[in-house]
Design a protein that fits this description.
By secondary structure, this protein is an alpha/beta fold. It has one domain (2-191): Rossmann fold. Helices cover 51% and strands 17% of the residues. It contains 13 helices and eight strands. The chain has a six-stranded parallel sheet, sandwiched between helices. Helix 1 (15-28) crosses helix 5 (85-98), helix 2 (39-47) packs across helix 3 and helix 2 crosses helix 13. Bound molecules: uridine-5'-diphosphate. Uridine-5'-diphosphate (UDP) binds next to helix 9.
Length: 235
């Protein structure tokens, strides 16, 4: 169920398939690490073997970003729909609420995870968010203890990339949760600190364009997309 794009594995699952699999994995206690793949990460991994290994070591690489869909098309692959990090997280929250699974939020500036928790509780009344810790806490032992004592099944880690992915691989085997997802700035979006692009932008895969209008300094990061597509075409 995976396709290889410039040396990086990407899953063909959609939101439905993956959320069902992940809830089953919790019942089977099968550790699962989800990483969002975008052109920026693939380009970085071309020059960073450690990052490449890390991304490929995840259990589920989701196609986050329209660039991945175009690259799959170019190589006659079958990935047609994006599975974004934040929407996967929200979907997983919904499924966890329906299946009585416990969630922990780790990362973001002080207070953000707590506000995100309240917002998620408003959206999914049955959700069980059993703990939060901000991403600037230095005491690793305290973080580990809080996560383990909460008996969470799902841990969302929002430390930015690739910091969160390195953190997850280092810790997941000694922590209680079964499912781990690196979610970047998602707590900021959920808590309302950052507005998401309006739906028409989302629908047409133009969130990058909206972000560019709002935060023009992102142009440097976004220039990666054309470079990525040219490289994907060459390969
Ligand atoms: N962050 C954190 N601890 C750190 C560095 C960053 O909790 O040591 C948080 C930061 O507050 C922000 C998120 O990580 O909420 C990174 O968001 P960004 O949108 O930059 O992530 P990306 O998905 O682009 O990697």
């Amino acid at each position: 169920m995976k396709e290889n794009i410039m040396g990086i594995d990407v899953c063909r699952y959609n939101y439905n398939d993956l959320s069902t699999i992940l809830i089953e994995n919790i019942d089977k206690k099968q550790k699962s690490f989800i990483v969002a793949i975008n052109p920026e990460k693939i380009m970085k991994a071309q020059e960073d073997q450690e990052l490449k290994k890390l991304l490929n070591s995840a259990d589920y690489q989701i196609p986050d970003g329209v660039g991945i869909i175009i690259a799959s098309k170019l190589k006659r692959g079958n990935i047609r729909d994006r599975v974004t990090g934040i929407d996967m997280m929200l979907r997983l929250c919904e499924e966890a609420a329906n299946n009585n699974k416990r969630i922990f939020l780790y990362g973001g500036s002080p207070g953000v995870a707590q506000t995100a928790k309240q917002e998620l509780e408003r959206r999914y009344p049955n959700i069980k968010i059993v703990g939060t810790i901000d991403g600037y806490e230095k005491d690793e032992q305290l973080i580990e203890n809080a996560i383990n004592e909460s008996k969470a099944d799902i841990l969302f880690v929002a430390l930015g990339s690739p910091k969160q992915e390195y953190w997850i691989t280092k810790k997941m085997n000694q922590l209680h949760p079964t499912v781990y997802q690196g979610v970047g700035g998602s707590f900021d979006v959920i808590s309302g600190d950052i507005n998401r692009a309006p739906e028409v932008f989302q629908k047409y895969g133009l969130e990058w364009f909206y972000r560019l209008l709002k935060e023009p300094w992102r142009i440097k990061r976004q220039m990666i997309l054309p470079k990525f597509l040219i490289s994907a075409l060459k390969k």
